[in-house]
UniProtKB/TrEMBL annotation:
Origin organism lineage: Bacteria, Pseudomonadati, Pseudomonadota, Gammaproteobacteria, Cellvibrionales
Pfam families, sorted: Methyltransf_23
Full protein name: Class I SAM-dependent methyltransferase
One GO molecular-function entry: methyltransferase activity
Keyword Amino-acid biosynthesis: no
Gene3D superfamilies, per the entry: Vaccinia Virus protein VP39
Keywords in alphabetical order: Methyltransferase, Transferase
Protein source organism: Candidatus Seongchinamella marina
């Protein structure tokens, strides 16, 4: 789930444009060093692996539980090896013995019954100084908040309310989840997306303007996903700093959100002008 809307017929597939940072794939790729060894957990059709292999000379190993998607990934010839595994089964990772500079978990943990166990099993596969890159959808996106006020909580084939999601996360719970897996979060970033998307935006207009403005004023209402970088924790005790200090948006994120809101407001204005002219 790298973006609010898929750009191909394959579920959660997307076209990668690393210039666009409001995309979890772009943010993960930006964190990876040239020539690294990467374990792509939940590699799907291999879009990320293909980019890493082609553009960054990375050696990539993929894991997925969907045979159809694995066949597509194999056809890309980007992966050193591909493994058809059920990540919920004990011993599923036994056939993988290499160490990796990066372990990617792109929108995986929300689909699992026991995601903490998976991460604990992955930690031994991380090389010294290696990094986990984890993307997680945000259940406090404005579309979810406004939908609940209209008594709507409708599952879909993809997106934040994907019908296969077993868990839902906020900024704080995503941070806590990763910390509690024996990892130390080193970077916490956001993927922004407009609150009013596709056909749902019209129903939200039924709500009082003051309520909509209140939801719009919350930065987290514009967050589609969180992307966390984390290292295996070397000490048993957690760092003594404020655990939530790392989830505060930085200036670059605030600037990206400001630009997104400007583009969104301009699109709304243009659509209103077009509607007026058509009358």
């Amino acid at each position: 789930m790298s973006s609010p809307e898929s750009e191909s017929g394959i579920k959660y597939d997307t076209v990668i444009d690393v210039r666009v940072m409001d995309n979890s794939h772009s943010q993960m790729i930006d964190a990876i060093n040239f020539g690294s060894r990467v374990l792509d957990v939940g590699c799907a059709s291999g879009v990320v692996g293909a980019h890493l292999h082609r553009e960054m000379q990375c050696t990539v190993v993929g894991i997925d539980n969907d045979e159809k998607l694995l066949r597509i990934a194999k056809a890309s010839k980007a992966y050193e090896s591909l493994h058809h595994l059920d990540l919920e089964k004990a011993g599923a990772l036994d056939e993988i013995s290499e160490n990796f500079d990066y372990v990617l978990l792109g929108d995986i943990v929300e689909h699992l019954r026991h995601p903490t166990l998976l991460i604990e099993r992955l930690i031994p596969l991380v090389a010294v100084g290696g990094t986990f890159l984890i993307s997680i959808p945000n259940v406090t996106h404005g579309s979810i908040k406004l939908g609940l006020l209209l008594n709507q909580f409708e599952y879909a084939d993809e997106g934040i309310l994907d019908r296969t999601h077993l868990r839902f996360f906020t900024a704080a719970s995503a941070y806590d989840f990763v910390q509690n897996c024996g990892l130390e979060v080193t970077k916490f970033s956001r993927v922004f997306a407009p609150i009013y998307q596709q056909n749902r935006g019209e129903s939200f207009l039924k709500l009082p303007r003051a309520i909509r403005r209140y939801v719009e004023s919350d930065t987290e209402s514009w967050v589609f996903q969180y992307v966390l970088s984390a290292l295996p924790r070397v000490a048993d005790d957690a760092c003594g700093e404020d655990l939530y200090s790392k989830i505060t948006p930085d200036e670059s994120e605030i600037d990206r959100l400001r630009k997104l809101k400007f583009r969104w407001a301009r699109q709304v204005l243009m659509s209103k002008l077009l509607a007026f002219r058509e009358k």
